[in-house]
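User: Show me a protein chain along with its predicted structure.
Assistant: Here is one chain, sequence first, then structure tokens.
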Amino acid sequence: MNRDMLAKALKGHEADYVEIRLEERRATGIRYRGRELEDVSQPTSSGGNVRALAKGGWGFVSFNDLGDLQEKVKLAVRQARLVGHDSTRFAPVSPVKDVLQELAVKDASKVTLAEKVEMAGRYNDTIMGVSKVESSVVVYSDRRRKVTFANSEGSYIEQTYSDVSMRVTAMARDGGDVQQAGLSMGSRGDFGQVEGQHREVEEIARRAVELLSAPKAKSGEYTVVLDPILAGVFTHEAFGHLSEADFTYENERMKELMVLGRQFGARHLNIVDGAAVPGLRGSFKYDDEGVPATKTYLIKEGVLVGRLHSRETAAKMGEPTTGNARAIDYQHPPIVRMTNTYIEPQKVTFDEMISEIKEGIYARNWYGGTTSMEMFTFSAGEAYAIRNGRVAELLRPVVLTGNVFTTLQNIDAIGNDLDMNQGGGCGKGGQSPLPVSNGSPHIRIRSCLVGGA
């Protein structure tokens, strides 16, 4: 569908705002479980949606048939007018006309299905070849999307990009004792970033076996050091979601807690979200409302200075747009989502960070977790004892629990070794897994509650 047809379909409607988003998508999915190749798929899809805003009410129509687009716009407008009974608040942005196509170093969409299955199979064989490993899960996925966006304000944007993700998990057993270890990988469409990881995959399998004989940490409060992966997951899950403005303005308690200007940590603490940071899984030039990507400080020098917005939440809260309205595909409307979320590095080395710890815990990687308002519980993928300034023996995975605001205040050292986790994805509002990245340097948290034995 050409630009003129979209412009024609957007004209002459009784709405404050209308947008059309069209999408073409090709994907690959591969799953091994144990020694079985469980699934191979290469779905393709195309479709679109219309979103209309009238008197503060939204109408939304999604479709696979691109014909009779004007009627689909009329339907979305009618829906919006049925529910809209107030004034519309929608932050103004300048119209944009742009056509973009990302090119990865080794574009996953150009790699054959046979090569992808072979790579996943080799990783699976590597895991299953380690003694005492009983089972495995190897999941590979990629997708390439071309998204065309046009709105009633005159914007027209074409963006084409790819995404790759992979998760490998090894499960080891000794009698009734089962332990597991995992590794996540991903990239902005570059297949080369998930190739050649056999040494790391074998290390994960051996780690699962080592955990069978590892002791449990004694539960209690410790000084805890988090590696960049776990610290990044903490930043995303425990704090990042609280910074999404749709969550804040709909929740009275969060309005009281997430007040701009509030001191949340020491001056060395800076937390950023930004799709304008290039080359990461959460990177793009324009969000799904056509707003240019930004780099947004959420916490700067320990103070809450910003939050993440769609055009609607920015207008309702009287704050600047940030380019954080994202939809996982054309079947969903955009909602406020993170992109690349991380703690900025400082100057402390890892050796300096642990040198002052008489008895502590070094927690690495991630396994899972939950958040409820400002409370969090995270399971580390692996843990080590810290004794007299040195990393000591491997421990069974530990669970970290606490209040995010107290924990931010308790971060007393931030490393110089920022690393971004490109694996996994984010879920919210029934839209999952959305490509994001998160990261951090090593961080040290004093007085963190650890669950072990």
